[in-house]
Amino acid sequence: MQSGRLRGTTLSAVRFAQEIAEQTGGQWSAVVIGGQGVADVAERLGSFGPAKVYTVVGDAFEHCLAGPYSVVLAKLVEEHGFEVIATASTTTGRDVMPRLAARLGAGMVTGVCAWESRDGSILYKRKVFSGGVVASVTVSSPIHVLTIDATEFSDPMTGEQADVVAFEPGGLGAAYRARFAELQSHDSARPDLTEADTVIGFGRGVKDPANISNVEKLADILGAALGGTRAVVDSGWMPNDLQVGQTGKQIAPKLYFALGLSGSIQHIAGIRGAKKIVAINKDPEAAIFEVADIGLVADMQVAVPEIVELLGE
Predict the structure, then answer these.
(1) Which of 9, 95, 258, 266 has its Cβ near the most Cβ atoms within 10 Å?
(2) pLDDT at 174
(3) pLDDT tens digits for 42-57?
(4) Sign of the CA dihedral running 283, 284, 287, 289
(5) CATH (one of 4.10.800.10, 3.40.50.1220, 3.40.50.2300, 3.90.550.10) for 198-312
(6) What is the pLDDT, as a whole number, of residue 118?
(7) Cβ-count burial of 260 within 10 angstroms (0-12 exposed, 13-18 middle, 19+ buried)?
(8) pLDDT tens-digit profile of 1-29?
């Protein structure tokens, strides 16, 4: 949950839970931790047919801190005997889940993109080497802690509305050594980068931050989110939370425009989930053309304004 709403990326973990419960003959439950807005999120999660939705509410949980959250989840797991605990592979998930695994003494797999049951064990699959290889991993501990690749699982199925149950974790002790100071975020009227159907990403080909306005005009016409390569972010032309790639956001839009970016393996790792990729680059040998569905060899400084003019008519 973020800002009182259910993030689209969380639905990947819901779908994973549905699949593994169905195929192993088990049940799945959901937990919502937070301050304001917990009830609405819990009701939404309950519509996907879990056995129960547990809520943990308090001012201390208004902002996510890995310490308190991991303590709460560990107590819930120990009290109710859950064997597989999963969340989306977001910055929050990658922060909280390793601490949870450590508290439970459990094995952990990050970025699960698929799974299968084999010889009585669960085989988890995850991408390595910037998505060039898929590794198969088993967990030997009784409890499995996972983060789920949000670009690889479809939307969850609806089911019978579940009961919402309040969970009281008790004292959190040392978990409160960390305090929330402030949240620095990039406010924008455009769609969220990880949830948008259309994303426009650009790289060094933009040449100058003054030229970003043309990209923004195209994004506004298409109702698209904006994203950038690491080079653009490191140059200070875009905020960190809009970086796409191995060290940024992994996205899966229906349409991705790659403008003036070379297509490094690190960037490709962030857009492998895109359904269609349209690339514009003046270098005909650019690596981005190897993964693009449609490619245009042209200078984006010329092509983008022309596209804006055509679409704006």
Answers:
(1) 258
(2) 59
(3) 999 999 999 999 999 9
(4) positive
(5) 3.40.50.1220
(6) 85
(7) buried
(8) 455 678 888 999 999 999 999 998 999 99
**Rounded CA separation 275/277 (Å):** 7
C-alpha to C-alpha distance for 257 and 198, rounded to whole angstroms: 8
DSSP the chain: -BTTB--TTHHHHHHHHHHHHHHHT----EEEEESTTHHHHHHHHHTT--SEEEEEE-GGGSS--HHHHHHHHHHHHHHHT-SEEEEESSHHHHHHHHHHHHHHT-EEEEEEEEEEEETTEEEEEEEETTTTEEEEE---SSSEEEEE-TTSS-PPPP-SPPEEEE------GGGGGS----------SSPPTTT-SEEEEE-GGG-SGGGHHHHHHHHHHHT-EEEE-HHHHHTTSS-GGGBBSTTSB----SEEEEES----HHHHHHHTT-SEEEEEES-TT-GGGGT-SEEEES-HHHHHHHHHHHHH-
**pLDDT value, residue 173:** 61
User: Does the pLDDT value for residue 187 go beyond 80?
Assistant: no
* Residue 281 in this model has a pLDDT that exceeds 60: yes
Q: Which two tokens stand for residue 220?
A: 């506004």
**Close Cβ partners of 167 (under 8 Å, ≥ 6 residues apart):** 31, 54, 55, 56, 72, 76
Q: Which residue has the tokens 């960037």?
A: 267
Which part of the chain has CATH 3.40.50.1220? 198-312
